[in-house]
């Protein structure tokens, strides 16, 4: 396992963002009846849309429309980014990977300034060989623009069906982790090359 180029998703792979997402849900629901975090997260794990989750306890179209508009701004607000936590040992695993490989951070975040502020606060800004922020650009196009991309050496690691689809479209090894937004049974439907518990298991399963 040497000289790989590993495109690694951020949310759900390196950080646990479940507290952030639930805190936004709880904040926006205010005095209305809400689901427990376990109930909320179990629905996210099988890709139930946020709108449908809201309807479980309060079904009002005008409220839901307003909720979704506010959520777009809140999800990258520094106040709520404080709820994000590094997944146990994820940074140690990345440092070990970097001994013989390139590790590139890949994220769909739109607010680049807040992302870099978060990375600095977590003291991980400088551990990646490259940071790719897609915003409105697809992850596939972003990877293709990277000077480090090489089809025969590249790997993508993510927690959702999006990274699996990107990997398959690019013809590169695709690894899904179970520390993020999707459950194993859901991910299996998209047939990644591998499903692992967390990024901490990646060193033993990369293609030679």
Describe the structure in brief.
The chain is an alpha/beta fold and 208 residues long. The protein has 10 helices and 8 strands.
CATH class of the largest domain: Alpha Beta
> Into how many domains do the coordinates divide?
2
CATH architecture call of the largest domain = 3-Layer(aba) Sandwich
CATH topology of the largest domain: Rossmann fold
Q: What is the CATH H-level superfamily of the largest domain? A: HAD superfamily/HAD-like
Instruction: Determine the strand fraction and express it as a percent band.
Output: 15-25%
Taking all Cα atoms into account, the compactness measure Rg is 17 Å
Plain-language structure description:
With 208 residues, the protein is α/β, with parallel strands linked by helices. It folds into two domains: 5-16 and 85-204, Rossmann fold (3-Layer(aba) Sandwich), CATH 3.40.50; 18-81. It has ten helices and eight strands. The strands form two sheets. The chain has a six-stranded parallel sheet. Strands 2-3 form a two-stranded antiparallel sheet.
Keywords for this entry:
208 residues, Rossmann fold, 2 domains, 10 helices, 15% strand, globular
Question: What's the topology here?
Answer:
Layout: E1 5-9, E2 15-16, H1 18-29, H2 37-45, H3 50-55, H4 61-74, H5 78-81, E3 85-86, H6 90-97, E4 102-107, H7 112-121, E5 130-133, H8 139-145, E6 154-158, H9 161-170, E7 173-177, H10 184-188, E8 194-196
Parallel strand pairs: 1-4, 1-6, 4-5, 6-7, 7-8
Antiparallel strand pairs: 2-3
